[in-house]
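User: Show me a protein chain along with its predicted structure.
Assistant: Here is one chain, sequence first, then structure tokens.
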Amino acid sequence: MPTAVPSNTIRTAAATPTAPRKVAVVGVALSDCGRVDEATPHALHAQAARRALADSGLGRDVIDGIASAGLGTLAPVEVAEYLGLKPRWVDSTSVGGATWEVMAAHAADAIAAGRANAVLLVYGSTARADIKARRRTSNLSFGARGPLQFEVPYGHSLIAKYAMAARRHMHEYGTTLEQLASVAVQARANAATNPDAMFRDPITVDEVLEGPMIADPFTKLHCCIRSDGGCAVLLAAEEYVQDCAAAPVWVLGAGEHVSHTTMSEWDDFTVSPAAVSGRLAFERAGVRPADIDIAEIYDAFTYMTLVTLEDLGFCAKGEGGAFVEKGRLLRDGELPTNTDGGGLSAQHPGMRGLFLLVEAVRQLRGAAGEGQVRRPDGSLPELAVASGTGGWFCSSGTVVLGRG
């Protein structure tokens, strides 16, 4: 990976700091996204990493940790070699879409404890291009061994599991199709000013409801798009901040939780693992859901947004439908959510959780361009939460970020 800027002097962290170091996100970037037919996944990793490093203003020599998943047999080893890095700290945690929030928590802990100075989280995928070029086919399940053997033979696909959960919420709390559809409508409205979004034209609730059925109750527009793309996030110890090109965004608290893999072991289809990861993240950050200015939430399906908002504490259990239908998720709403358009409209190249962190940081920095969120008094947002979900509500990672 070419050096973006001259290397800074490497600071050697104490093996055991006298006090935990503060940790900041100092660089974020996307690779080319959307329809990327000529690049390889490795190339997207490198492109995103170079851009994030340039965004930080630091030299590549500060990076002594790398976290990566989803590519190759030994993901962080292969990616590190491709990028020309030889890290002394690595993480290959793979828990689906929640991977990146969990990795960010692990990286922040390592930096705070002095086991690393600067950790690069990087991802890239050509999920869309591979299918178009017939390099791979769509899959109905993640496999049929272990616990999954009891579900897969009956056609219990990933989307069917989300659809079952959505139907249970509708039955239990009276949530309507129109309320779920409004999540997609607001995501598309937020994407309208995002030049990196794959779909930007407005849609209506009726258009969502009238689309082709994928898995009852989800029509096509209830489901995330399939795109190519990648991104990278660089976290560093507080002593590097003075050399950075942009204002730091601090990691204030994080939590993680795994719930189940087989549906028979899921205690309640209307409760996601964010109910635990979110509570832990807010407690560790010393803030409340009411303090949050922006929410970036994993949205492979509209129901994910609705139930995660409930489980993070932005509304009571069962009130998600009423909460989302009033335009609260729009950039100028009460709780701007998925301000880039999310996986429903912007990009979704697979494990999208890292994109949530990139957008949260850009918003807190005031670097979101036409899509920038402002508080009612015109000031920049102060606090954001990014909450990723993996599998079929199997795992969750939640990170609270703060400006200043």
